[in-house]
Amino acid sequence: MEEPRLDFVTCASPAGLHRMAYWEWGAPDNPDVVVCVHGLTRTGRDFDRLARRLAGRYRVACPDVAGRGRSDCLPDPAFYTVPQYVSDMLVLLARLRAARLDWVGTSMGGLIGMLLGGAAAGVAGLRAHAGAGFPGAGALRFERLVLNDVGPRLDPVALARIGQYVGQPEAFDSFDAAVDYVKGVSASFGAHDDEEWRELTRHVFRPEAGRWVKHYDLRLAQPFAAQDAAGLAAGERMLWQCYDALDCPILVLRGAQSDLLTESTAREMLARNPRASLVEFEGVGHAPTLLHPDQIEPVARFLGVED
Length: 307
Hints:
single chain, alpha/beta, Rossmann fold, eight-stranded mixed β-sheet, three-stranded antiparallel β-sheet, 11 helices, 37% helix, globular
């Protein structure tokens, strides 16, 4: 079975330098690139099955966002924020030198994609809000954008649910026990067989001193917990500005039982941007894992990948 190449880019935060890992599939000189970015506590290896499906047509880059997987932890956890992740992605995009650029973002990865797309569209105030590292209009352009179970409005109850486990220092004596934990906290992913649950666990727990521990910096929970109502409202306004400005085809994926991307928000996304379409998956909450063919194939078709 094909395996990805592992590489790194060096990025900067106000606290210093850090390396961001990324997994790359497909021909290394292919100028047609799709970047796949994971959710809050996941890794780039979440996209293995999707990447194998796309790799004949694209070079597929799947980063581990800072503080996760093979990437470095940030010296100051205050910078575990979406603007910092956007800055890191710009470094990756400069490395990839794509002639055609598409984006697949699950949850947090979709927020990063919306901000990048909005920056490229020249949304008023975005650069001033997020920092000089953002590009100006025309610096990048997505040909197509996939938003996997995320939109500009995030349900606060769902955010509170996620916040309950993000910073918990779980450790297990066996990999099977870690799998059982992932099954419990990720029940909203929907039905998966035993091997799929093992795949969903393999890259988010790592062996350390004879135990299995979470792969990410537990301190990333600090800025997540520090969000207040005013900050969330300001972020939502900015995200709607970015989303409204997107001028490429958009595929919105939604788990039909998702508590993060509500049905009303998904319908509003369709109404506000005529280039958006929606695919929903029954029996799934937040978020579709893109492990099953019925979830992979809509993405492949949208990106123009032939059977």
